[in-house]
Amino acid sequence: MQKIIDGKAFAANLRAEVQRKVGLLVKDGGVTPGLAVVLVGEDPASQVYVRSKGKQTVEVGMQSFEHKLPDTTSQEALVDLIDSLNNDDSVHGILVQLPLPPQIDEKIVINRISPDKDVDGFHLDNVGRLSIGDPGIVPCTPLGCIMMIKEQLGDLSGKHAVIVGRSNIVGKPMASLLLMENCTVTITHSRTKDLAAECRRADILVAAVGRPEMIVGDWVKPGATVIDVGINRVDAGDGKTKLVGDVDFASVEPVASHITPVPGGVGPMTIACLLHNTLQQACHITGKSVPE
Questions:
Q1: Is 97 labeled as catalytic in the residue annotation?
Q2: Of residues 192, 203, 198, 209, the one with CA closest to residue 226
Q3: Is 193 an active-site residue?
């Protein structure tokens, strides 16, 4: 197994598998999966991300529906759009790009999406299903992480997993997924006493805290698998910036048995898992079996 986990290659393989299955679903089942992405406002990073999602959606043979709304959009107007997408039989997945403008309540919007079309896995129904181990839609970034961890380590039973960060998007669902794999799980956060000592206990260390290069080599148990979810833009000098993770790669890489880089690690898996979720839900909604 390679030491540096190549998220780009893993994501490319997953997209190829999704594309193959979409082709079979279209040919044999007469169903073309459809993903609707809603962007409110002009946030540059969100615009780039939405373009990438649309491009990759089409590349795997799905229909892409993009809805770009001005940042003055009211909550009522956004909810009306979601209602229409919920009732559109050609749409099997709905994603509202976050963050939203301040006049819109994110929780209300997320929970207005049909749980069956909530391919981000943020609806309360899907959060609840994951927390009790029932089948449901798993948030894309944690899903990508657990896929890569299992690919490297196989059976995770009995391993001690430490998660740095307790967000609803990554930290908490990541904990649920690792528990389902029979890991012993510790969630750490800003109030944790002696964070370094907790990290050193980890066989699997997942960093999702949003602080550049916070986790350094002497925080990591020799031979641990380190998954860096952080994406931080920092000053690189000469007026330029660069992307770094929550892990100081240079000091941690010699200690870890496996590690994801930033960029090129967890990031590419997020959109690939979004496409995976959309395929799954297209089959679920239409009563078709997922092609083998």
A1: yes
A2: 203
A3: no
**CA angle in degrees (0–180, nearest 5) for 9-162-95:** 55
Domains of the chain by residue range: 31-114, 140-268
* Catalytic choice (56, 116, 118, 120): 120
CB 91 within 8 A of CB 7: no
pLDDT digits (tens, 9 = 90+) for 134-153: 999 999 999 999 999 999 99
Active-site option among 21, 53, 117, 159: 53
Which residue among 21, 56, 97, 248 is the active-site one?
A: 97
- pLDDT tens figures, 264-280: 999 999 999 999 999 99
CATH 3.40.50.720, domain 140-268, yes or no = yes
Per the rule left: phi > 0, alpha: psi between -120 and 50, beta: everything else, 21 is: alpha
Architecture of domain 31-114: 3-Layer(aba) Sandwich (3.40)
Predicted pLDDT of residue 43: 85
Told to judge if 63 belongs to the known catalytic residues of this protein, a careful annotator would answer no
Instruction: Tell me the whole-structure pTM to 2 decimals.
Output: 0.95
